Amino acid sequence: MTKISDIAAKASVSITAVSLALNNKPGVSEETKNRILQIAKEMNYTKTVKQNKVGSLRLMRIVKHGHTINTDHDNFLSHYIDNITRESRNNSCELQTVSCSINETNHILKGFIQDGIMGVIVIGTELTKEDVREFECYDIPIVFIDTYHPSIHFDFVNMDNYSAVNDIVTLLVKNGHKEIGLVSSPVDVENFRRRERAFKTLITEYEQVNLTEYNVHSTFEGAQKDFEKLIEGKANLPTALFCVNDIIALGCMKTLKKNGIQIPEDISVVGFDNLPQSRMSTPALTTVQVNHAKISEFALRLLFDRIESDSPELRLKVSVGTSLIIRESVRVLN
Asked: What is the pTM of this model?
């Protein structure tokens, strides 16, 4: 039986390009698409994924420490779940979501394999590199979303943290901010680390900008209490803060207002995730919108590719662009 990888090899294109062409999706030129379709026809290719049994895909929502996989982020995570479920249905595959703790994954994955499940998408927000490596022993196609580890031999689809942070730095510097604070958290979340590194790297491009770093708990109450201690007795605060997610930003904003510090008149604040709370805060929070729909679409497409042709040498790391949502929490300095 002809596989996608066979068509890709003959056409000298990627597996993803073949998948795009076969599913009439944008992303390849008309000429390339027609060439791929012709080769597929010549090789008597027929799709197999849609013929598999309904309910044979799984989406795992894994909780390790609960600092980001929690009720505060239910809306953010539900966008992934809803989009992946819809994309699965569009491909005639019903998807079931399984929520579990990190300690239950071994038992659950073994059950998936025994049940003949075709493939798994893992929401890996709270998983470390070592946690992800534990999945290498399972003989089942797996794609990770909401995390990224380039050295590990899996497919990953994640937001483009670097470009998103670049948009934030550009906004703050353009608006005249030279004293900027980075508010992160020591909790193990790979996206936090990537945003931190991007921010520190990008800030060095502006010699006139001074960076102050803060570390707080990543829950709303924890961020509020920790930030209170960090700014206590400090006469001079930065003119702007970038917080690595919205929950931290909202906690810091509450502390600032409690201490009589006005936003954005005294200090500007930027978050990341565009949670519903960010629209309802006072002032409304400037933040980053993650493209859940595209991440979900790419993840499912990669999973189908992996199911049809599990080529060990072809593992893809996909970064999906974001949008900066400018609201009322950032001030233009004179």
From this structure: 0.82
